[in-house]
Amino acid sequence: MDQEENMSYQKLTRPYIRSILSLLSKPATDEFFTYVRDDVSWTVTGKSFLSGHWTTKESYRTATFDRIGTLLKAPGIKLKITEDDAGIILGQNGHATADLYTFDTFTNDGTRYDQVYAWHMKFDERGMIAEVKVWLDTLTLEKVLGGGGEGRGMQGESNG
Fold it and tell me: What does the mean pLDDT of the chain come to?
């Protein structure tokens, strides 16, 4: 890593990460995704109907955000981070972890969708999200949003 790249990573701060992730509190996620590289590597862990690995922003959005949006009452999923930034941990070389929580999010039948996510992210030298690995409560996902057998084919691009 050269000195210029190292200086870029030093600009990665909790307020910067908060400013990006706070965009997920809005019903539309388009603005958030302007901070995600087109060739992002995005993994959702587990064995749920939304689990998988994607290597483009568009394929990830289609398989997850767009899909979950059909299961939720408008305006869809809304995420927040803790107000004091305690849920954001800065690592080295562009790595950061953040805890995200759903709020005011309901299924089409009116059931509250309470979910907690842990996002492990790597930012590139321009401050764009290059990699994400997501952990979530898959039992809540399956219990509230279903998934049964009908979604099992959506295992991302690499079905290993």
Answer: 85
Q: How far apart are CA 82 and CA 63, in angstroms?
A: 27
Buried b / exposed e over 40-60, threshold 16 CB at 10 Å, is bbbbbebebbbbbbbebbebb
Structure tokens belonging to residue 98: 């953040």
pTM: 0.84
Q: Which residue has the tokens 């190292």?
A: 6
Mean predicted confidence (pLDDT) in 120-145? 94
Burial class (CB in 10 A: 0-12, 13-18, 19+), 35: middle
Instruction: Determine the pLDDT at residue 10.
Output: 59
